[in-house]
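Tip: read the tokens left to right.
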């Protein structure tokens, strides 16, 4: 794979990431505007999921070592 192809793939990933972020932001704003969820609930859940992911990674490291 050439360097140009790698840069192209990175650019494609950035575009996908941007579009996913845009959709998620819109969804959160709509849910908050409708009073179905608060921004603090979103933040709390994201932090909990992130923490769970870190625990999962740590558990995999323990098994590998």
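Filled-in amino acids:
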């Amino acid at each position: 794979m050439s360097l140009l192809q790698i840069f192209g793939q990175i650019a494609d990933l950035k575009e996908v990431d941007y579009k996913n972020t845009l959709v998620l932001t819109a969804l959160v704003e709509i849910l908050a505007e409708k009073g179905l969820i608060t921004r603090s609930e979103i933040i709390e859940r994201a932090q909990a999921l992130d923490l769970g992911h870190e625990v999962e990674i740590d558990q995999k490291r323990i098994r590998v070592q």
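Residues 38-65 form one domain. The longest helix spans residues 3-33.
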